[in-house]
């Protein structure tokens, strides 16, 4: 057994061997060793039985397509940039340039800042820049601590927090830090505690161990404060000391103090922040020599001249804005005009006007600025761009940059713009400037473009696209490699193997002018900054390390560099690569302007069911109609499908301005993705298309024809050492005493016997909502009342022996008396739940139906209910003229019947039990006198019921085991029943529990609805109840009566919540009954505790039971449904072949018991069904025994526990109703399992139900939160069902709470819900048809 073996598990983590050293002579050591061995031992799946088990893989592995294009070129040769020239007057360090210009060119302008209207606000000269930077450096090093203690040392990291509108303050702070030799870390100004990505910035500050932040006075005033006036502690940030750098707060150094300016070395100069695809913000450290070399390379490539003017529209804190507008500009004494983002929003042409006014030679822009200027250019007649020698397009590597550049040129060529000055470039925080197009010579042809096939690109191959214009991507080059650099292309995944010439890969660069590391993160640094490319054999091609740029591209003709995407925008779907930017470009091409905002589209992928799925989120314009939006969405779907040959998983539109923003107004992709996954996106329109894009589902299971016979089961059992899955309760035993036989043969006789022998013994106590006794019944009172009713039946109702009589009563003692009155008169009672007076339209038809189906000769009821049956409101719903005779039993004359009827044989029908199943079927079953007495005897034995005992019942008394406990058991066993109508709990939640405490009840019976009411309603008030003296330590057994799989989560939370009130964790258990046999299991008082097992859900869908450890993936906890009652035999049978099954199979539960029902009542022409359900035989094995089919699936498991006789205990586990199961993709699903997953998907899902509709899975979810959450549920529900059940949801219906119908037993009526859905009566908040 290899324990340290790497196991493929979630997240594929490595498991290490578990070893504990203990001294050899220690007595404990062997015990501990045994324990450790069991912990280490993996759970073995059971031996396969006699079925062929092809361990079906979950995921369908797509077969490789033979037509997939493959790279065919030769391996690429690294590309060299031109040598970096040696210019004599280049400074030895960047600060030295500032010293020089400050001293010799003090009046020369360094920077002009604009105000919000685009007019110049101030100009900072080189002299001022120098003097202020020196003052700041001196202050930082000498004046921050008390008594001039040094707070900062050279090499410490300092955050720079300046708004985009204040480039001058930033410039002084940056150079002040360089002169003080502390390391500036420029970051964005935090606007609120909950900024998008704010805690990630905190991670950056932490990894750089920043404790000091520089800012301006105005900025400091604007930061969010606490009530005390202190600056808010931002989420995830370290504690910072804030220092204001305005001139008036700085100290001028003495004449003798000079900043130390060493020659540039490899120490870090500054740290630039960078956000990764996962949302983490890391700091790229740039050394002093790299900073200087980069400025030199840019100067050479852009041919910068001393004293020229540059207009910068980019963010000066990072990337191109910092490299050109703050660093290279100072090295060359350039005058920078900084145009902040806010000005661009107010006046998009401002940068063009600045170029015109200042005759600038260089402008630094993004495609967005070109686009905006173009939109606004009509307002401007006399601008000239003739002075421009370079228009640097910072995002020229984007797929849509080509069209922006072309369109801009088209508009501004008449304003003097020359085609050859447009210079796209490619950059990344790690490799800095990767390539830039040099300004061309006027008149020479512009470089050619590459028109590539999208299909090829998705396979990472370059193929020229000639035919289909739609699926082509036009890319412009980004010029040549930087001076002094070496570049090659390597495979983006796996080892850095050199690509072939026609293959797309990641650009890696070796240069002195690049980032050095991710500061404070050595592990991540190695994979990015120290890459040595390898050849096809895996051998390194040289010694020199390269830096990964994160850009994907190739080297074209003439060594021009082409970039086709970024690593972080890469979406890997089914082994093909798609670029987020390309998908955005395609979405924008679908005339978006009417429906969505141009720059507000986010594309990302989420992992669902073992593959990446593409999600597109866009901001919708407020004036777009629903019709427009859906049209746009469906066209985007088609466009992306036809152009990129990839299916979208989800397309969501959110209200304008609701997507999380980055500081310059872009979309924060990572936060958007997080919101999508957490259900916080709040879309106003959503389309899910899982059917088209989830292609890796396993093939549907083909059911094998089952030719199983006796031989195979013999062989099977011998081979696998399995036993037939069967179990039995203990024997009912014989009753020797004739007197007892007489007493127990018929319940009517038992009541007469009790009335004679123990007349004043109180059998029943009925409580009201206040916990007060409303009425009681002793044996003799019940007997006399039953006599009165029997007399009334024969006189008023003129009924004959054997007639059916409907009992229509609220839960109480009248119901019980009427039942025995019917038995005394020789009639067959049928208990029916009375209609709800406030909701007759919904509840009266069921009453009418049962009365009609049972062909009742007469109705026994109360005065109140009689009025309701004859009321106008009732007439609006049913025909009230055709009711059978109605007898009101409230005040009957004191008459005795001439005789009390005694049935000639115990096989005669005692009563009919009608109930509506969860599938909406009304079924009545016939219960004979023999079955009644066998059932009561079985319960008496199991629960040890005697006349000295007291039990409390909080159940509906109309059918099943609830009726048996309410009306029959006390008369048989003589114990006292305290009756609590469940309806009373609605007005007084603690009623049931306080009754248990007050009467010190040991045994109580309730329903799931009662348990849920207590858990949700008073689960949080245990302290108050305890203070009132409520104590549940007396309760020995609390049995939930149900006809379903035990609701483990509910029983466990009930036990946990009321543990504080003394409730024993062993007390709560469940019972199980069905239509064919009302009581199969019940925990009882003796015998082992209920056991819980964890089964593998995947196997369960194949009708197999495989036990797994708790917490295993895809495990389902199941609780035993109580002990099998005395006299009951259970066997697990294959419902198709009707052969008995082995232990590890899921099959139908069949019952052999003296208290099974005799048959269905009045299902005409269905005699075969009677025989099939009530008296059926196994197809082989034991062909003589007659069994009743419960219609429930379950399995039997032999446990380690011992029963009363000392044998190993066989536990019965109920999994679900056969009628309710969903057959999807050839597998069997239980709705409750899917619903459990759905309810877990989002905090706002109160309840859910699933059903199928023409092979589609429909999920109905009740929304408990606000309506803006409604559409968030759609993707989450789809994801969770796909992940956990491997099913695609066809329709998601979001409804208000309380829409899912639930019957009196607390079971969901899924078929009623389905009918309402199909009849369009649900009035949903939203219906999503997943395409």
UniProtKB/TrEMBL annotation:
Keywords from the UniProt entry: Cell projection, Neurogenesis
GO biological process assignments: nervous system development
UniProt keyword Acetylation, yes or no: no
Domain AMP-binding enzyme C-terminal: 1220-1322
Compartment list: Cell projection, Neuron projection
This protein's GO CC annotations: neuron projection
Domain AMP-dependent synthetase/ligase as annotated: residue spans: 104-519, 753-1161
Main location as per UniProt: other
Record PANTHER family: DISCO-INTERACTING PROTEIN 2 DIP2 -RELATED, DISCO-INTERACTING PROTEIN 2 HOMOLOG B
Family label: Belongs to the DIP2 family.
Full protein name: Disco-interacting protein 2 homolog Bb
Organism name: Oncorhynchus mykiss (Rainbow trout)
